[in-house]
Specification:
The chain is an all-alpha fold and about 140 residues long. The protein is about 75% helix and about 0% strand.
């Protein structure tokens, strides 16, 4: 069984296509999740998808809002509209990070050390920014 070498330009095109599909899938999934949360909220309280009394808590990060992954997941499991919308926004934020992770793996598989180092540095900066943002409250 012989293997045919794929030219670098064709390989690069395949990688870009795959990464584009990943980004599109993430955006579509995010939109579907957000709309589902809005529909559930509207079905539960017609005319007012969310209790207006919860808005200050959500805005200020008080106990009423879902601000960590475990509480967002709990809200999704219990079909709480605000948590579902938050989960959709979380998917949207995580989509480009997934692209960086997939790029890192693809560069590693291709043996492109320069781009592995650069992409790893970008991933490190993304992780650091989330950690610092979380620590800052």
């Amino acid at each position: 069984m012989s293997t045919v070498a794929v030219p670098a330009t064709e390989r690069s095109s395949r990688v870009q296509t795959a990464l584009g599909l990943l980004l599109r899938a993430g955006v579509v999934a995010s939109a579907v999740i957000v709309v589902a949360g809005l529909v559930i909220g509207e079905a539960r309280t017609p005319g007012e998808a969310f209790d207006r009394r919860e808005l200050p808590a959500l805005r200020d990060g008080a106990a009423g809002g879902s601000h960590d992954v475990s509480s967002v997941l709990a809200d999704v499991v219990h079909l709480r509209p605000g948590g579902i919308v938050t989960a959709g926004l979380l998917v949207l934020v995580l989509t480009p990070i997934a692209r960086v992770v997939v790029s890192l793996m693809l560069f590693a598989l291709e043996g492109d050390r320069t781009f592995v180092v650069i992409t790893f540095a970008v991933l490190g900066m993304l992780v650091a920014s989330f950690a610092l943002g979380h620590a800052g409250g």
